[in-house]
Specification:
The two termini are 19 Å apart. The strands form two sheets. Strands 1, 2, 3, 4, 5, 6 and 7 form a seven-stranded mixed sheet that branches. A two-stranded antiparallel sheet has the order 8-9. It is built from 17 helices and nine strands. The chain is 49% helix and 11% strand. A hairpin with a 5-residue loop joins strand 1 and strand 2. With 424 residues, it is of the alpha+beta class. Helix 8 runs antiparallel to helix 10 and helix 12 crosses helix 13.
Length: 424
């Protein structure tokens, strides 16, 4: 029996609230259970109860055993002097506040819903990774759909918290935030941290000055990435190297330390050289991308914006000084969909939050038109009959996995709540 389960029982009223009695023999009627306190102090705030028809207003503290009151030192803490009810599973001793006044106690084990308790022990006291996996199929489709919508918006809200930190750091420079975020996801799983760091070392305000000149744009990216420090016979490499040396001195640029950009175990089409060349082309052909991003409201527009082909040199190269069979290096559908999901939708949501103009329905419609992502998390839920039909589903399941399943927050999850409520 965990304390957070008792919080859940109290908050959701999963106990017989008729004919309640305190362990001191007084009639108890709950008018208002209070607000769950996520900070220090009593567990539920501003509770209202009647004890023998006398109205009490104050706080509720919840423990597994009454003796936990002393184990936590509450008898010495004035913050707990306004506790009007001690709710416990097992009342093993009377408790007193710092004024030596006894606290009325409600022993929940006498009133708890036995069906809920049985389901909790069956489902959530096991070591199974997904304790609900054989009951999910019994949750109705509307409940699941609504929860997926909420998980998706919750994920966007979490990302917005990070973007707010960037806004403070950049003094509300949305162009820098887009540029840095786009670089991060262009780097892919292997190089995302290095590419994001690159976006800090080469600020957008410097980079965008040269977006009309593709040579200079590539030179800046490859140079700050630390990829122009060798001696090579390749003529294009030498041109970029010369351009970069001049721009580096002009703007006082620093570079990524050697070894931060990785090629190991990457398919050639995902080499950082190819991704940087494609990134250079995005800005070269569009310029200020942020204004364009705000106008996007369907996948077709977004694909047109982010489907680009690297400069002609890369038709016959995946890396400098190594000629390969001719092939256009164009961003693929999976890559562009990744950018739409993680950059376009996230930044549109963040900007709407920032300016106070909310249009979640458009973002939801956009995500429902995109194919689901393919990753380990999506496969986990697919294997328990929760398939991802679109990108909204896959983003919702990523949020579910990372924020509820991994930390075992089943009692905060709508799926877990429904399973307990229905006794599945």
């Amino acid at each position: 029996m965990k304390e957070r389960f008792l919080h859940y029982i109290w908050q959701n009223g999963f106990f017989d609230q008729n004919n309640l009695m305190t362990n001191q023999g007084n009639r108890l009627l709950i008018r208002y259970k209070g607000l769950l306190n996520t900070d220090a102090g009593p567990d539920f705030l501003n509770t209202q109860i009647l004890i023998d028809d006398i109205l009490w207003a104050g706080h509720v503290e919840i423990h597994k055993n009454s003796s936990d009151w002393y184990a936590h030192g509450h008898e010495k803490d004035p913050a707990y002097d306004n506790v009007i009810l001690h709710v416990v599973y097992n009342d093993n001793m009377p408790v007193y506040n710092s004024h030596n006044q006894q606290i009325p106690t409600l022993e929940l084990s006498k009133y708890i819903d036995k069906k809920v308790l049985k389901t909790y022990k069956k489902r959530f006291e096991t070591k199974t990774f997904l304790p609900c996996q054989d009951a999910i199929g019994q949750i109705d489709e509307i409940t699941l759909l609504n929860y997926k919508y909420r998980l998706f918006i919750e994920r966007l809200e979490n990302k917005y918290q990070n973007i707010k930190n960037w806004l403070l750091e950049t003094k509300n420079d949305w162009h820098q935030i887009l540029y840095q975020t786009l670089l991060k996801y262009t780097g892919g799983p292997v190089n995302k941290e290095a590419f994001e760091w690159l976006g800090r070392l080469l600020p957008h305000k410097i980079f965008i000055k040269y977006n009309n000149d593709l040579i200079k744009t590539e030179a800046l990216l490859f140079g700050v990435a630390g990829l122009l420090n060798d001696e090579k016979s390749d003529e294009y490499y030498k041109v970029l190297q010369q351009e970069y040396r001049f721009l580096k001195a002009k703007h006082g640029l620093d570079e990524l330390p050697a070894g931060n950009i990785k090629f190991h175990r990457l398919r050639p089409s995902n080499f950082p050289t190819i991704r940087l060349a494609q990134f250079a082309r995005m800005y070269h052909q569009t310029g200020h991308l942020f204004e364009k991003l705000l106008e996007l409201d369907n996948p077709g527009q977004a694909r047109k914006l982010f489907t680009v082909t690297a400069s002609v040199y890369w038709d016959t190269h995946y890396n400098f000084d190594k000629i390969t069979k001719p092939k256009k290096k164009t961003t693929g559908k999976d890559f562009v969909n990744l950018i739409i999901i993680n950059v376009v939708v996230s930044l549109k949501f963040a900007y709407q939050q920032h300016v106070g103009h909310y249009d979640n329905d458009t973002l939801i419609e956009l995500m429902e038109k995109l194919p689901a992502e393919k990753n380990k998390i999506v496969r986990i839920y697919n294997n328990i009959n929760l398939p991802s039909k679109n990108a909204l589903d896959s983003q919702a399941f990523i949020q579910l996995y990372q924020n509820y399943c991994i930390p075992k927050k089943c009692l905060s999850c709508d799926i877990g709540h429904n399973i307990l409520k229905k006794g599945l």
